[in-house]
Amino acid sequence: MILPLDLILLLFVFICAIAAITVRDLLSAVVILGAYSFFMCLLWTQMAAVDVAFTEASVSAGIGTVLMIGAVSKTKRRSKD
Amino acid sequence: MFEFIVSHYNYWMYIALMMVGFYAMMAKRNLVKKIIGMNIFQSAIILFYISTSVKRGATVPILEHAHEGHGAVAHAAHAVDVMQYANPLPHVLMLTAIVVMVATLGVALAVAIMIYKRYHTLEEDEIMMSIRRG
Questions:
Q1: How many domains does chain B have?
Q2: Residues of B in contact with A7 (CB under 8 A)
Q3: B109: nearest CB among A47, A52, A67
């Protein structure tokens, strides 16, 4: 566990979480959520949880983003808030 | 006391992320935004569990040369210093939680698509208005 890397990754994760719920375009919100998942994945790799990291990268960042993009393309892309 | 608070910064960030997700679930009116908030909430809980398994100076919980040799000498060599490895039990628990997270995400998105097909909108207030109108 490396302290400066941990702090920087935690900051990026928080910024991505705030941006994902603030952006009005739903497709960009979904892509920012994918970036959030990949930053989480890096965070777990440096916390020595490699099995959780690659499960997160394949299942949550991969399949989750694909599912959400499919849902957004089937419904409306604009959001009011 | 101050050092105790500062040294547990992972837990403070876990609380902040959890509240961001909770705010999105409660205050946002768009259904996809609510689902994004649920996703953030769940991965914040996973961050909490993984943070409990971290030890200072520990490495990945994989044994090197685990199958070498037989007999008493090998048994002595297999005695593992626990403080060298991160605790693998929370990792295994959270693998299940990630899979459950994607399953709930899929079901929630399917329900949102069905709602959109019926009411032609994803905004919660418009859906409530068209329900009240009958």
A1: 1
A2: 9
A3: A67
SS3 sequence of A7-25: HHHHHHHHHHHHHHHHCCE
Q: Is residue B73 part of a domain?
A: no
At B3-12, the pLDDT tens digits run 888 888 899 9
A74 vs B13, B61, B113: nearest CB: B113
Summarised one tens digit per residue, pLDDT across range A41-80 is 999 999 999 999 999 999 999 999 999 999 999 999 988 8
| Residue B114 counted as domain residue | yes
Q: How many A/B residue pairs have CB atoms within 8 Å?
A: 132
Nearest-angstrom CA–CA distance, B127 and B80: 59
Question: Is B129 part of the contact surface with chain A (CB cutoff 8 Å)?
Answer: no
Asked if the structure places residue B32 within a domain, the reply is yes
For chain A, say whether B124 makes contact (Cβ under 8 Å). Answer: no
Count the alpha carbons within 13 Å of A17 in the hemisphere toward its beta carbon.
Answer: 29
Q: ipTM of this model?
A: 0.93
Residues B118, B119, B124, B130: is their CA dihedral positive or negative?
A: negative
**Domains of chain A, residue spans:** 24-75
CATH code, domain carrying B88: 1.10.287.3510
Whole-prediction pTM value?
A: 0.89
Quick check: is B72 in a domain? no
